[in-house]
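User: Please predict structures.

Assistant: First:
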Amino acid sequence: MLTYATPDQLAEHVTAAQLDQLDDGDAHRYLRAATQIVRFATKNDLYDATPAGLPTDPVLADALAVATCVQVREWIHNGINPLAGTAGLTPVVMSAATNGSSVSYNDTEQASARTRLLTGLADTAYSVLRTAGLGSSMAARR
């Protein structure tokens, strides 16, 4: 399966503490999941590719790798496990009561943002792609 980045490349974009949050082998699985999202975001882009599907242009290949790593970094930072899907998202506490006192949170916007991050490309990853000329929503022509 095509993967735009390696665990070694991921280690350049996350801290050791963030990597330690992943179970053994999850770095590869997170990178594969992030690659699918990056690939979807670049589906209209036209570039020469190797038989493996990677761009022959090293600048574009690097942009895809960095965007993939940034996507994984955002998942880790926000406590999102892409392998578990929406069922893996931690429920947002809307209210709590203890001994007569209560606290209520209105985090529906935060919950929506986390769901979007699970299934869509993070803004920071998209910026990496756009800087390299990738991630266009326009159909490519030669």
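Second:
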Amino acid sequence: MTSAASFQLSAAAAAELCRQAAQTQRHNVATLALHAGDCAAWVLDVRPGIDEGIAIARGDGITLHAAACHLEHIRGLSLDYRGDLRGGGFVLQGPADVEICACGAAFSPAHSH
């Protein structure tokens, strides 16, 4: 696992990733991918059961991977999971130099706006 990414995974996010990955053939892995976004520079795409890229975080029996080309963009971010009666979703949190969209799944470096 690379320490350069310094990406954090909350216990709630790890538990939800484990729950979702259990529905796949690969129960202990997930991949975090980034795509160009509309509301922010990057939109998060979490894919349970897929292990593409470099291991960036581990928790509660799950290993989260990301493409090497995305490491500079996710450095300092953390992934959480929030659920309520209407459902739930993964939510990003980051340092002051990163703007997180209100949707919680997209972000931009503060200097990009």
